[in-house]
Amino acid sequence: MRKRTSPSTLAAVAASAALVLTGCTGGADDDAATPVAEATPTPDAVETPEVVAVSLEECVVGTWLIPEAELVRFYGTLSGQIDEVEIAPYGTVELTLADDGASSYDSDYGFDLLIEAGSTSMEPRVVVTGTISGAWSVSDDDRILLETDDSSLVVDVTVDGQPMDLGDMTNQFLEHTPLDSSAGAVTCTEDTMVVPYETTGDPIDLTWERISG
After folding, report:
1. Residue 36 counted as domain residue
2. Which helix (H) or strand (E) holds 50?
């Protein structure tokens, strides 16, 4: 005799089957739910570095190079102020201003001269090498002051390959060189130092390039 299933039992079985077919998750309506967008992280604020004021005395500490182009400009100005002499410089000069107050110049430069006196002319070649050491300081009006303690500077003059002593003339050139105290206020940046130097006329500003420090 076949056992009858009650209507309530059939309803329960049908309900269970429906849950299985929909994945037991509540049906298709859940799949169509709108996804929640993730919050976009806010980037960290960029901090502006604090600008620290540097004094001239702190800024000029380091090793500086005066390039050949600046030597050409300096001696070009100087030769224009000396009658009957043309100057063609070459080479470089290094200046070190240490934080303990010591200073040193390393010279490896020179100039070719054309000297004309009436119908006579000659073309000496002057080579300046060696080191000048001493001390440096900054004045109240922002000039760099140099004191020489020791000098191994050597000035060689030749004409047609033969040594010659031009005496006062070479001394005159060396009195006006980028090896002196500044003639006016010095300005300094991270990369350059502008120094006024005396000539036989108005001072001329020369730009040194920082190579270390």
Report:
1. no
2. none
